[in-house]
Specification:
The structure holds 2 protein chains of 2 kinds.
Chain A lengths: L15 H13 L3 E7 L10 E2 L10 H15 L4 E8 L6 E9 L7 E7 L5 E7 L13
Antiparallel strand pairs in A: 1-2, 1-3, 3-4, 5-6
Helix pairs in contact in A: 1-2
Chain B lengths: L8 H4 L24 E9 L5 H11 L16 H4 L2 E7 L7 E7 L9 H9 L8 E10 L2 H4 L8 H9 L6 E5 L8 H14 L3 E3 L12 H19 L4 E5 L5 H13 L4 E5 L4 H13 L3 E5 L4 H4 L5 E2 L1 H11 L3 E3 L11 H12 L2 E2 L11 E2 L7 E5 L7 H8 L4 E3 L2 H4 L5 H20 L4 H14 L2 H9 L24
Parallel strand pairs in B: 4-10, 5-6, 5-15, 6-7, 7-8, 8-9, 9-11, 11-14, 14-15
Antiparallel strand pairs in B: 1-3, 1-4, 2-3, 12-13
Helix pairs in contact in B: 7-8, 7-16, 12-13, 14-17, 16-17, 16-18, 17-18
Classes of the chains: A alpha+beta, B alpha/beta.
């Protein structure tokens, strides 16, 4: 399966040039770009690991792409990497754009666990097959 | 327009009938204060009725007046409680109609109650015999009053954080056919649409609890579908479970069941009434649930500009009342929607400050004082081939709902959903990359369709579908010219 979190998961995987165009859009809007990675892509896993701090002061997308390369060197294949842009302006103070830029080759997907509840109620639980293995050993590079 | 001299108290309050303009309801010198609530009415008096007298009567009948003088006024600070009409302008290009501006003292209204606000402003006066027709065009809500309301239970920012979806419009679809599906069949549509790429599916406004599908069946099968789609995609998914019912007790029961099943969102119809909506908004905030509102019934009083209440007023009331989503028009779809007027509605929902903009039908500056933003929903007769126009008109903080445009896809519901999602992501990507999406829209869609057969088919099937009719509700204004200094 293909996890479709993020803004552009239904498009073919983005090239570096395409990523750069989106990063520059964020920078031009005054948003801070941030890289995060995880090997637990549960839809409600909010806090992916931060690749250093958000890049508040980088004004050129090329700088972000350098960081992305470094992050890929450390984690590509074994982790998902996403790029988020944070808007600190009043009334927002939140993420304004977020998309996956790197994903493991094989994505095993999620199992849906059901527990019988009262009446016909099912209590559902979603779990990535990958998390059956310990952290950092979940995907084969 | 001359001011009427306030008669001496003794003659002012002697028994009998007196013109409203002479009772203090017409005060052309009055400067509204920051805490006044201001309303703009379109007044169409009966033939022979003076427009100022008619407008003063509107002020009177929507505040303290009755048809005759009452001595008991003198027991009150009646000058304060009287609404004051301070300006009457002819409506451009509409002989016989006038815009009347009326200021209301804040103490006339119960804090945090749309029921009280609306009972005051639109309670009696719309049936007043000396008027042929009356329309409430817009309302300036003072910050002091705004702050007495909860506002949207969740708001755009938190809704996005909760759903983990940023940077693009959300995608939805209303399950069709709207009536007749069993719970089991209904859930099938939900599953296919969500798995195919939509964020939300939606009950229609008249899906409540009918012989063909009891509400509990719908909720149970919808949540099975939501959870299956969530596991199939790794994304948070939702289905607006309509809790509209005959009584508040029934609605609470349904909402509680939706919560028990883990739904991120519930829904109600505008026809449940303002108080019920406020109650559900409070419930939604207490229970971490998004509240979707379908504006069922609104066109009975919003559509004709001569009489009724403009939707921009309803949108303001609903932002105060605390819903998270509201249907606000599509411009390009099958339902009424002049582009400029619709733009005004979207601004009312999403901005923190909206300046007066007569060309959008906005008569007053409006400050929302950080009240949560309300996500507008574009729904009704839209399809993937219009994606560039939709993104251009509405930006990204909107739910685009393609009902027929998902479920009617020749390759099936999931394919229809995928077509919409691919078209949407491609258009947002192109816009961010600096392309002129409005001019190049068709090209961008065709490029995206090269690697997506469902989108190719969608573009082919619906390529000629447009709904191009004249609007019945467009702003009446004269572009004003600022003289050179």
């Amino acid at each position: 399966m293909r996890i479709t979190q993020g803004c552009f998961s239904f498009l073919p995987d983005l090239t570096d040039d395409q990523i750069r165009s989106q990063v520059q859009y964020c920078i031009d809007k005054g948003w801070a770009v941030n890289l995060e990675y995880t090997d637990d892509p549960h839809p409600r896993n909010t806090y992916w690991e931060m690749w250093d701090l958000p890049m508040f002061d980088i004004k050129d997308a090329a700088g972000v792409l350098l960081e992305l390369d470094a992050c890929r060197k450390a984690h590509a294949g074994r982790y998902y990497i996403r790029l988020s842009a944070f808007d600190a302006s009043p009334g927002w103070e939140s993420v304004r754009l977020s998309f996956i830029v790197e994903r493991p080759k094989d994505e095993p997907g999620f199992r849906l666990l059901r527990t019988e509840g009262a009446g016909r109620n099912q209590i559902y639980s979603t779990q990535s097959y990958a998390v059956d293995r310990p952290e950092s050993e979940r995907y084969d590079a | 327009m001359t001011s009427e001299k306030e008669p001496a108290a003794r003659s002012r309050f002697s028994a009998g009938v007196m013109e409203y303009r002479k009772m203090g309801y017409w005060q052309p010198d009055y400067a509204p204060s920051d805490t006044d609530l201001i309303a703009c009415f379109r007044v169409t008096p009966q033939d022979g009725v003076d427009p100022i007298e008619a407008s003063a009567a509107v002020a009177g009948e929507s505040s303290t007046a009755t048809w005759t003088v009452v001595w008991t006024d003198r027991l009150t600070a009646c000058d304060k409680y009287r609404a004051k009409c301070y300006r009457v302008d002819p409506v451009p290009n509409s002989p016989g109609s006038w815009f009347a501006f009326i200021a209301y003292e804040l103490d006339l209204f119960e804090p945090g109650s749309i029921a009280n606000l609306s009972a005051s402003i639109i309670g009696n006066v719309f049936g007043f015999k000396p008027l042929k027709a009356l329309r409430l065009e817009d309302m300036r809500l003072p910050v002091a009053y705004v702050k007495t309301f909860q506002g949207p239970a969740t708001g755009i920012v938190v809704e996005r954080e909760r759903l983990d979806k940023f940077g693009r419009p959300l995608l939805g679809a209303t399950v069709k056919p709207k009536l007749g599906l069993s719970g089991r069949n209904y859930g099938r549509v939900v599953y296919e649409a969500l798995k195919g790429g939509l964020d939300f599916t939606k009950d229609d406004e008249n899906i409540n609890s009918q012989p063909f599908m009891h509400w509990r069946e719908r909720f149970l099968y919808c949540m099975e579908a939501v959870n299956r789609a969530q596991a199939a995609t790794g994304e948070v998914k939702g289905s607006y479970l309509n809790v509209t019912a005959a009584t508040m007790e029934d609605m609470y029961e349904r909402a509680e069941f939706a919560k028990e099943l883990g739904s991120v969102v519930i829904m109600a119809d505008l026809v449940i009434g303002y108080t019920a909506i406020q109650s559900m908004a409070k419930w939604a905030r207490r229970n971490d649930t998004i509240l979707h509102l379908h504006r069922a019934g609104h066109s009975t009083y919003t559509r004709q500009k001569i009489h009724g209440v403009s939707f921009r007023v309803i949108a303001k009331w609903m932002r105060l009342a605390g819903v998270d989503h509201i249907h606000a028009g599509t411009v390009v779809g099958k339902l009424e929607g002049d582009p400029a007027t619709t733009r005004g509605y979207y601004d009312i929902c999403r901005e923190d400050f909206i300046p007066q903009q007569l060309e959008h039908g906005i008569f007053f500056d409006q400050h929302w004082a950080s009240l949560n933003k309300l996500m507008p929903v574009a729904s009704g007769g839209i399809h993937a081939g219009q994606m560039h126009q939709l993104l251009d008109y509405f930006g990204e903080d909107v739910v685009l709902q393609f009902g027929g445009g998902t479920i009617g896809h020749p390759m099936g519901i999931a394919a229809g959903a995928t077509a919409n999602r691919v078209a949407l992501e491609a258009m947002v990507f192109a816009r961010n990359a600096g392309r002129d999406t409005l001019a190049e829209g068709q090209t961008i869609l065709e490029e995206a369709a090269r690697s997506c057969a469902p989108l190719r088919q969608a573009l082919e099937v619906w390529k000629d579908v447009t709904f191009d009719y004249a609007s019945t509700d467009s702003p009446d204004f004269v572009p004003s010219v600022t003289p050179a200094e």
